[in-house]
Structure formats: structure tokens, C-alpha cells
Amino acid sequence: MAELARRGERLASDNRQLRSRVDELQAELASAQARHRGEVDTLRDGFATEAAELRSRFEEELQCRRAVFESELQGQRAAAVAELESQRNRYDAELEDLRAQYLEVRTRLDLMVARLRAVEGHP
After folding, report:
1. 8 A C-beta contact, residue 86 and residue 92
2. Given this model, what pLDDT does residue 123 score?
3. Is residue 29 scored above 80 in pLDDT?
4. Whether 89 contacts 95, CB under 8 Å
5. Which band of pLDDT confidence, cut at 50, 70 and 90, is reported for residue 5?
């Protein structure tokens, strides 16, 4: 019986030690989980900050490139308008020249017709 009592006491002692160890491990686990949550939160905040900075830089670069594109586009548009105006002026001058030639030819033709009528005796 005494042997059973000693075994019972030893088992109770082992049980208390195991429970104490379980309590220690649970405390360590809770501490590790808290640290992990803290690290995750820190990483998440860091990544959020970095993402916001990247987004901001992207928007700035996009605005800069838009401004450059708009400037280049306006320059090209102005050059195209100037070229069209130049072509229009050349065509207008050519049209005036053709009108003058037409009037000259028309006048000569009228003179020739008048001479022919005079030669043929038509009034």
C-alpha cells in the first residue's frame, strides 16, 4: 500500500509539474502569438506606407508624363496647323494664278472670236 501511495504521490507530483509546464508553454505561446501579431501589424503598416509612397510616386510620374505628352501633342498640333495653313496659302495662290490665267485665256479667246467675226463680216 505504501508503494501505491508513493506512486500516487509521484504521479501527482509529475502531474503538477506537467501542468506547470503546460501553463508555461501556454504563456510562451500567448507571448509568441502577441509578438507575431505585433510583427504582422508592423509589416502590414510598413507595406501600406510603402504602397502609398509607390502610388504617390506613380501618380506624380503619370502626371509628369501626361504634361510632357500634352506639350508634345500641342507642339505637333501647332506644327500641323502651320503646315496646313502654308499649304492652304500655296493652294490659294495657285488658284488665283489659275483664275488669272483663265481670265487671260478667256480674254484672248473673246478677242479671237471678235476678230473672226470681223473677218467674216459678222457683227
Report:
1. no
2. 61
3. yes
4. no
5. confident
At 68, list the grid cell.
Answer: 510632357
What contacts 117, CB < 8 A, 6 or more positions away? 123
What is the average pLDDT value for the chain, to the nearest integer?
Answer: 94
Maximum Cα interatomic distance, the chain, rounded to a whole number of Å: 169
Handedness of CA 67, 69, 71, 73 (dihedral sign): negative
Residue recorded with cell 501647332: 78
**DSSP at 72:** H
The three three-digit cell numbers of residue 22, written as one number: 503546460
Structural contact between residues 123 and 117, judged by C-beta atoms closer than 8 angstroms:
yes
The pLDDT of 23-28, averaged and rounded, is: 94
CA dist., res. 67 & res. 70, Å (int): 5
In the predicted structure, residue 103 carries a pLDDT above the cut 70: yes
